[in-house]
Each structure stands twice: as C-alpha cells, then as structure tokens.
Amino acid sequence: MTAEELLRRYAAGEREFSGVDLSGVNLNNAILVRIFLNNADLTGTNLESAGLTDARLENANLHGANLENAWMEYAHLHRANLSGANLKNVVLCDAHLSEANLSKSDLTGSDLYGVTLVEANLQGANFSNTNLNEARFDGATLHGANFSNANLKETSFQNTDLGGVIHTVLSGAYARKTIMPDGSFISELTELT
Predict the structure, then answer these.
(1) What helix, strand, coil percent values describe the chain, rounded to 5?
(2) Which phi and psi angles does 46 have, rounded to 5°?
(3) Would you say the pTM of this structure is higher than 0.85?
(4) CA 20 to 30 Å from 166, out of 73, 106, 132, 145?
C-alpha cells in the first residue's frame, strides 16, 4: 500500500489497516490517531513526527523504522519488532510494549513515563537522557542497554538481570529478584538508593 492510499482512506474515516505492507513508505508528519496496524510490515518506514496516539501496532514489524519525534502515547506495541529503530525524542507515555523487541534501538531523549516494557528485548538499546519515571522493565532483557542520565524514579526492575547494563544510576528505582550491575542479588522488593 502506498502512503497516499493509506492517508486517503484514513481521511475518509477508515482505521483498520492490520496486516498491510507499508515497508519503506514516507509517512513523515502523518496524523494517524487510533489507527490499527496490527501485524503490519513497516520495515524502514519513515514515521518521523507522526501522530500515533493510541495506535494499535501489535506484532507489527518496525525494524529500522524512523520514529524520531513521533507522538505515541497509549500506543499498543505488544510483541512489535522495533529492533534498530530510531526512536529519538519519541513520546511513548503509558504505551504498552510487553514482549516487544527494541534491541539496538535508539530512544535518546524520549519520554517513556509509565511505559510497560515487561519481558521486552532491550539488548543494546540506548535510553540516554530518557524519562523512564514509573516505567516497568519486569523480566526484560537489558544486556548492553545504556541508561546514561536517564530518569529512573519509581521504575520497576523486578525479575530482571541488570548485569551488563551501561551507565546506570538506579536511585529511586525498585527491584526484586534482580541481579544488580555489581553482581549482587536483591530478593525482596527494595527501593534503590
């Protein structure tokens, strides 16, 4: 499907586009609020500055997509593939990314307040200068993830291995059944200082 066809049909009121192939298309600045793109192929798609609030992208393939400056509050990305995606300065507040693959994605400067990343693959992801206040990383794979200057206040890391995480100050975060970066183990729910 072309970007023009998608935008025309969306403007006419259609919201259900699950399973479509939009790989490599340019949807820069597109406003696609509450669109359904479950199981869609968005590989390499340009969604820079797109409005995807409350979008449904479950099981979607966004490998290598450009989502810089996109607005994706309340988006549903359960099991989505965002590996290698550009997510710089994206707003993903209260979004659901459980079991998603964000390996080697760049989330520098993004706002992920209240995001759910339970059991997500975040290996090598860059969370530098990111707001992760009240985020949930329970059971996530974090080896090689970079949290330099990230806000981790009230962030949950339960049942998580933080060994191999880069530049992490965990002050204000919570951990339980967690392997810490220094190799120690926290068994009971603890606020980190």
Answers:
(1) 5, 20, 75
(2) -95, 105
(3) yes
(4) 73
Beta-carbon contacts of residue 91 (< 8 Å; ≥ 6 apart): 70, 71, 72, 73, 110, 111
* Span 142-173, pLDDT tens digits: 999 999 889 988 899 888 888 788 766 677 77
Place of tokens 């066809």: 5
pLDDT digits (tens, 9 = 90+) for 56-72: 999 999 999 999 999 99
Q: How distant, in Å, are the alpha carbons of 2, 78, 145 from that of 81?
A: 21, 9, 17
85-151-135-178 Cα dihedral, nearest 10 degrees: 100
Q: Which residues fall within 8 angstroms of residue 188, CB to CB, at 6 or more apart? A: 176
Running DSSP on this structure, what letter comes out for residue 183? Answer: S
Residue type at 61 in one-letter notation: N
Question: The tokens of 160 are what?
Answer: 């998580």
